[in-house]
Amino acid sequence: MDRFAPPILLPPARPRQATAPSVHWTLDWIDFSRIDIAAVHDHIDLFYLLVSASFIESGSHTYTRNLVEHYDAYPQIADWLEHQWEPEELQHGRALKTYVQTVWPDFDWDTAYAAFFDEYSRLCTVEDLEDDRALELVARCVVETGTATYYRTLRDLSPEPVLTELTEHIRTDEVQHYKHFYRYFKELNADRKLSRARILGALKRRLLELRTSDSDIALRHVWAFRQAMPGVDHEPFEQVCQRLYQYVGARLPMDQAVKMLLKPLGLPHRMEHWIERPLTHIARRAITA
């Protein structure tokens, strides 16, 4: 390099701009008029899965009230639950309801949902929550893990573009909800320093409830009202459940789910890696059995 060459003058650095907050999707983003009804209408398993999901999401305000009351001593958590988590969950319900009513207009969604909610709301009580607020956040991580992997599976199973778009939006929301619950757990647990045995107990209790609570109630009401529709083949409820659990369970991204479930335990990386594979195998067998 010529030591007498004139210096290279660089343009002044541009001031760093603040990153704009991400805009959350709305129902206006989904063009329900573009739904390819023929591609999905005769897919009975998707009918059951989408209607039952729409019921559970639409009833999330009941859970919100319980959780807000449970975390009244933690205004940041209560505020997020009431002003972000609940509106997004209810939006999931409205979007799924609109999709269902577009594809299956003969199904009486409103009446079936009312029957579901009458039973479901009586089972959603503050007493069902973990007494320790940090452990309830662990339990919520389990629920959000389940919903995130469920909607990813529905997205991958979707034969219809609008449904693929919708389930991807919901999946993304559920992953973000998991991250919030996990962050709040870490903040609360920094003072509590709960043992791994207690954390594992909360994980196990909520895992055991996943298959026998919300989804079973919703599916039973979807099944009951579908039986009343003209021209429908009468299939025993137990047979429907078994087929759906096998259909979805065999396709769930269990490796992703197990990674999410293990995070609250704070295991050393080597130990976490060592137990991931056998735990994935056990979880898949439990779901599809």
From TrEMBL:
Domain of life assignment: Bacteria
Gene Ontology MF annotations: oxidoreductase activity
Entries under CDD domains matching the protein: Ferritin_like (cd00657)
Signal peptide feature range: none
Name listed for the protein in its UniProt record: Fatty acid desaturase
